[in-house]
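Write out the 3D structure for:
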Amino acid sequence: MTGSQPVILGEMPSLSKLYLNAAATAARRRVLGTHTGTGLPDGSHEVRGVRAGVANLTAYQHLIGETASDILPAGFIHALAFPLAMSVMNRDDFPLPLLGMIHLGNQVVQSAPVRFTEAVDIRARAENLRGHRSGTQLDLVAEVRGAGEGRLRWRGVSTYLAKGVFLPGIDKPSAPPVQVDFRAPDPTALWQLGVDTGRAYAAVSGDFNPIHLSVLSAKALGLRRSIAHGMYLASRALADVGAAKGEAFRWDVAFEAPVFLPARVALDISTVQDDDGGWQRSDYVAWSPRSGRKHFSGAVAAL
């Protein structure tokens, strides 16, 4: 798959148009009963010479709690690349329904900083289609390089689940993973998230998925209330780790339970130091202080 020639797009796709197309495709498949097969699209999509908007970057940094800097935060790069990954899932030959996908986790490796003055080339592809006890999962891979250069600066792998969709020929795991009881530690931070949190993040990320925007739009897709974007939560935790992470690091997050808005979220960050007392890794976990249920967890580690 990775050896195929990429589909070169002239500009970054519009997320709003992609969501509208996904809704139309879902309706057409329900009416006609069409199916696209069980394989992922071959090849990747690419846009060259992408630049971040300064006003958008500043608004993102303010919302997430990142320090003002000319270096793009890792979560901002994810948002910058997200429309391209979405365009892969919007293809007619993509075997899973895009709407209703559940974001299970992310693994990001930022090997070198990207500054807002630089243009970048972004490439995205789908891979690793596999079974899940609740449906079918896959990985969306996005890669960011300086425009015209071969060196990889940033690579993100987003894992998504199509719940309730079991494709023929793909086995699901025979047993669920062992659940470890979660005991909430003393929090290092307490976030107060308003009902408008989803709309605020959509405004800086471009991700206007209806499940995040309002009670009405979320209910239309089967949720009781709107939920916070997973990448808003993970990016805010990354911002709380602070400058200790430096310019080259690995960032992991696993999502477990959605955050229904409005909400209070407790966060704990613990730091691991090397033998010389320098920063090596920060582990983080977030949960509901009311119910004690874990929302997400992860780690940021030095490269």
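The mean pLDDT is 92.
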